[in-house]
Amino acid sequence: MTTLVSTTDTLTRDALAVLQPGFVGTTAPDWLLRAIGDGLTSVGLFGRNVADPEQLAALTRRLRREREDILVAIDEEGGDVTRLEVRHGSSFPGNYALGAVDDPELTRDVARELGRRLAACGVNLNWAPSADVNSNPDNPVIGVRSFGADPELAARHTAAYVEGLQAAGVAACVKHFPGHGDTAVDSHHALPRIDVDLDTLHARELLPFRAAIAAGSRSVMSAHILLPALDPERPATLSPRILTGLLREELGFQGPIVTDGMEMQAIASVYGIERGSVLAIAAGADAICVGGGLADEGTVLRLRDALVAAVRSGELPEERLADAAARVRALADWTLRARVSPGAGTPGAATQEGTAPGTASSAGAAASGGAPGVVPTPDIGLLAARRALRVTGTATPLTRAPYVAVLTPVANIAVGEETPWGLATELNHLLPGTQTATYAEAPPEDTSTPTPDPATRILTAAGDRTTVAVVRDAHRHPWMRATLDALLTARPDTLVVEMGLNEAPPSGALHIATHGAARVCARAAAEVLAGRVR
């Protein structure tokens, strides 16, 4: 296979500069280091690249030995979508919880602390926050990643988040432009379509993005969605009308536009990643995000060569590629100045890069509610999670370890299956001996070996223990609601904890809505159940 070799060709360097590739492993492979030397300006990190803060800091230091101003990007929304704490769950509630509190100053503080931790590990570009207005409660991919269904609320919290994150010296990348909230299809799997008129788009979808631009967001991520009112033929990521006409010219955004992952099926299955990347840059995008699924040297080579070939054939104007590369390099320069001189560009104090956040022993971290190796900040993350709780009904605090039944939906790709969620771990800290099991939708019945329904299995396993049923987006899953109904009929004292959208009517002797499935949200709910409210 052809490998990357050192070159000083301007066109090739520009083609590499607009790529944001991922890689496999917790150390930088040789091919990636060579690519950085050849002009690659950005690297994307995923959960597979993070073991702990110390390892991550060492990884980013190694990348900066090749290029001091390298953009190190990560998808760290907090809440359900975490890469920094992928193995344990986030120390911060996500957008939906922050929107439920509706205190923009709290949102700003949470984002600032999250940014501080990222900066301390050497990460300087966060593909966050989600500015999507979750107007469709059946949306399979946004949900709790949104601040809520109210455009004004989403706008004020998007702006606060951008300000807090960038005050820590980490560039925000507001997503998914022009708004992924009113979709019923996950763009990881297919192309969603939003059929609303222009007035609705401007009054609803675009409001948070206008607020983000006014707040100084350094970058914006495009969505792989079709909006016929704006462009009936091409998805936003590939649409000159949307990226150049709307975002650049009408809304006045001048920073780099980053695509969502190009290997997502909304693009890859229709255009292919090479053709899609050329069309995206031609439409006005400046950086190609790839690497969630395709994370090897061959992918980088193919995309680089496709861009170079498109320029040489006249399909992609050379000045458009050069402009895109210049916007990416300008962002890299901003992050370098923010790191070296805290406050450059955005008021605030950035953390000195290269030293991981304060660490503690696994035992000490666990005792204070944090993941092993990370000192938590309960005055921000846990405080916010506590404030986000909505409790309906009354019940005597648990004094005996309960049985926790977790009704588990299929995880969406953005959240990932590797991040644990649920209540049992946090409840076991307070009530040792807590038992738990997960339950999924029953498969079609096999008449030869029929499977008992989840409620029957839960009741059998719980015995005489109090049952705590944990659900996630119960309103979207009829089997979850049916299971809850059966449990409550048999055991009216069942306690219910909803860790997704709080759309279904409250049920149970006690109903707790956490507004997200982050570890810190579970901790806050466990405190209520055990009568340890602070």
Quaternary state reads single chain
Q: Unreliable stretches, pLDDT < 50, 5 or more residues?
A: 1-8, 342-352, 357-377
Instruction: Classify the secondary structure makeup into a structural class.
Output: alpha/beta
Fraction of residues in β-strands: 5-15%
Distance between the first and last residues' Cα: 60 Å
Strands side by side in the biggest sheet:
2-3-4-5-6-7
Secondary-structure topology with pairs:
Elements: H1 10-17, E1 19-21, H2 30-38, E2 42-45, H3 53-66, E3 71-74, H4 95-101, H5 104-120, E4 125-126, H6 151-167, E5 171-177, H7 198-205, H8 207-214, E6 219-222, H9 240-250, E7 257-258, H10 265-268, H11 273-283, E8 288-290, H12 297-313, H13 318-340, H14 362-367, H15 378-388, E9 390-393, E10 403-407, H16 424-430, E11 435-439, H17 454-462, E12 467-471, H18 478-490, E13 495-498, E14 510-513, H19 519-529
Parallel strand pairs: 1-8, 2-3, 3-4, 4-5, 5-6, 6-7, 10-11, 10-12, 12-13, 13-14
Antiparallel strand pairs: 9-14
How does this structure look, described?
This protein is of the alpha/beta class and 534 residues long. The chain contains 19 helices and 14 strands. The strands form 3 sheets. It has a 6-stranded parallel β-sheet with strand order 2-3-4-5-6-7. The protein has a 6-stranded mixed β-sheet with strand order 9-14-13-12-10-11, covered by helices on one side. The longest helix is centred in the middle third of the chain and has 23 residues. 57% of the residues are buried. The N terminus is likely disordered.
